Amino acid sequence: MSCFQLRIWICVSDPFDEVGIANEIIVGAGGSKPNTNQFERVLKCLNKTIFGKKFLLVLDDVWTEDSTKWEPLRICLKGGGLGSRILVTTRNERVALMMSSGKNDIHHLGHLSHEECWLLLSRIAFSGKSEKEREKFQNIGRKIVNKCKGLPLAAKTLGSLLQFKNSVEAWDNVLNSEIWELEEVEDDLFRHLLLSYKELSPTLQRCFSNCAVFPKDTEISVEGIIRRWLAMGYLGYSSDWEVRGREYFDKLAMRSLFQDFSRTSNFDEESIASFKMHDIIHDFAQFLRKSVGSRMRETNCQACSPLLVSQVEKYRSLFLTRELYDPHFCDGLTSVRLLSLANCGLRGIPEEIEKLIHLRWLDLSWNNFMVEGDLKSICKLYCLQFLLVPGCNLKEIPLEIGNLIQLKELDLSYNELIEELPESMCNLRELESLNINSCTALVRLPQGIHRLVNLKHLYNEYTEFFKQYPQGLAQLTSLVTLENFGNQDGSKLGWLKNLNRLSKSLELTIELSSGDDSSVVEDAREAELRNKKRIRNLEIFFNESTMGGEEVVKEASAWNDILDALEPHPNLPTSEMDSIAPQPTHMYLPLRL
Fold first, then answer.
1. 348-359: buried (b, 16+ CB within 10 Å) or exposed (e) per residue?
2. Which terminus of the chain has fewer Cβ atoms in its 10 Å neighbourhood, N or C?
3. Cβ neighbours of residue 429 under 8 Å, at least 6 residues apart?
4. Cis peptide before 390, with omega less than 30 degrees from 0?
C-alpha cells in the first residue's frame, strides 16, 4: 500500500453518478471540488489532480451495467502514474465483466467455513452467558449456523439476534422459522435480517426503515436521526424524547443493524456520535419500504425527477439532493412531515409551502434567499418542530416566528446580515436549541430570553459584535451549551451562577476598565465556576482596551484577583493558571480540565 502516492475509497452505489464520483475522487486525491456540474470540466479537473501520480482507487458497491457511464471516467483515470490500480467491488458479475479487462482480473470472494461461521456467531450470541449456558445451546447453535451459508454478515446478524434469547425453545424457533422458506426475497441475506427485524417492536421497525432515506455510505448523525424520528412521530410527545431516541438507537445498534461507529465523550461518558449502514442492510431497509409501501412512503430523490415529486401526494419524508426548478414543488406534498431542500439552489422559499400543514422538520440550509421577508410563509407551519436555515443570506427574522410555538430547534447560523432577533422569538417556550454561530452582525439577544424555559443549547461562536447579554440568561437553568459569555456593556459574570449544567467548552471575555476593579472581582466570584463540573475546556480573555502603558502593569494583580475569584472547579490544574504571564493588552488563558 505504501507504494501508492494516493489511496482513495469511493462508495459508488446506485445510481451511478458520474459527476459525483469524479468530484469525490478529486477531493480524495487532495484537490478542491470544482465549482461546476459540467462533466467535461469536472473530468479536466480530475485529470489535472491525478496526472502522473500513482494511485490506488477503490470503487465500492458498483451496480451500473452501462459501460457508456464508466468509459469517460476510465479514460480520464489513465492519466495517473505508472502502476496505478483500480479495484471495483460489486455483487453483480456482469458489472465486473464490464469494468474489467478480462475474466482473469475478477476475484470471487469465498465463503466462511462452517467452523469459522460458528466462531463468529457464537462469540456474539454467547456474550454475557456462562459456560454452562453455552453448552446448552451448542448443538442447536451449530444447526443454525448452517443457515448462514458461509456469509459473515448473516452470522453476525443471527448472533446478535440470539444474544437476547435465553431458552432452547427460543433458539429452536429461530432454527425452524418459516422465514427460511420465503422465496420472494431479493437476497439470501434478507431472510436472516427479516428474523432480526420481526423481533423489533413496530416503533423500532419504523425507526430502522427510516434510515433508508439516506444514500448508501452516508455518515449519519445519531442526534440528527433522533430528531427525524421525533418529527415522524416515532418518539411520542413527552419531554424525554432525546433519552427515548437514544434508547431506540442503542437497541438497533445491538442488533448489528448499524456499523462504523464514531464515538465522542463528555465528562467520562462515551456515546456514539455517528454511524453508517452496511450496503446490504441498506438494501434490506429499502426492500422493507417496498414491501410495506402503503405504510412507509419515503424517498431521498436521488433518482427522482423534481417534476414527478410534485405529483406525489403521500410522501412522509422527502430529501431533495439536486437543484429545484419547479416553483410549484409543494403543491402535492400534503402529507410530508420531513422536507430537506438543502443546497438546492433556491433563491426564495418555494411557493405555497404554507400548505404543508403537517410539516415537522424543514431543512433549507445553504440556499441564497434574495427576497426579504421570505420566512413569513414558513411561519404559518404551526406544527414545525425543527427549522434549519443556516447560510441562507437572511437579513431579518420576521415577528411571525413567534407563531411556531412547537419549535424545538432553530438554526440561524452563518447568516451574516442578521443584526437582531425579534422579541416574539421568546414565545417559543418549547425551543431547546438555538444556533447563531457566525451571525457576525448580530448585536444582542432578545431581552425576554428568560421565557425560553426549555432552552438547552445556545450556540453562539463567532458573534464578535455582541454588545450585551440579557439578564434573563441567568434564569435559563436548563442550559447545557453556552459557548461564549462576557461582562461587556452591563452584562454580569454572576449571571452564570445557577447555570450548573453547562458542559464541554466555555469562553469568557472579561472587560477591565481604569479605576477600581473590585466590582469585577466580586462579579467573577458570583459566577461560582467551581460548581460547573461538566465544563471540559475553559478559555478566558481579558480585554482592557481603555488602559495603556503603566496602567496595564498596575492591573496585572487585578487579573490574578479575578482568576482567584472565578475559582474553576477543583479538577482544574492550578499550575496551568499560575504559569501564564500577563500580556500588555490581551490575555488568552486556555484551561483544560
1. ebbeebbbbeeb
2. N
3. 405, 451, 452, 453, 454
4. no
What span, in angstroms and rounded, lies between the C-alpha atoms of 362 and 25?
31
CA gap 115, 119 in Å, rounded: 6
Q: Which residue has the cell 482513495?
A: 8
Q: Give the pLDDT band of residue 405 (cuts 50, 70, 90).
A: very high
Distance CA 373, CA 398 (A): 7
Cell of 219: 455518515
Residue in 151, 154, 166 with CA at minimum distance from that of residue 194: 154
- The helix/strand/coil state of 59 is strand
Closest Cα to residue 331, out of 346, 315, 347, 319? 315
Distance CA 352, CA 330 (A): 6
> Which pairs with CB-CB distance under 8 Å and at least 24 residues apart come from 171-175?
171/137, 171/140, 171/141, 171/144, 172/140, 174/144, 175/140, 175/143, 175/144, 175/147
Q: Which residue has the cell 500580556?
A: 583
Tens digit of each residue's pLDDT (9 = 90 or more) over 324-359: 656 666 766 778 999 999 988 888 888 788 889 999
Q: Give residue 457's Cα distance to chain centre.
A: 16
Q: Among 262-271, 294-303, 314-323, 553-562, name the one with the lowest average pLDDT.
A: 294-303
Rounded to an integer, what distance in angstroms lies between the CA atom of residue 288 and that of residue 283?
A: 9
Q: What is the pTM of this model?
A: 0.81
Whole-number pLDDT of residue 550: 54
Please, which pLDDT band fits residue 178 given cuts at 50, 70 and 90?
confident
Strands (E), 167-287: 220-221, 259-266, 269-276
Q: Identify which of 297, 301, 255, 302 has the alpha carbon closest to the alpha carbon of residue 275.
A: 255
Helices (H), 320-393: none
Distance separating alpha carbons of residues 7 and 590, to the nearest angstrom: 37
SS3 43: helix
The grid coordinates of residue 323 equal: 437543484
pLDDT value, residue 296: 37
Q: Which amino acid is at 191?
A: R
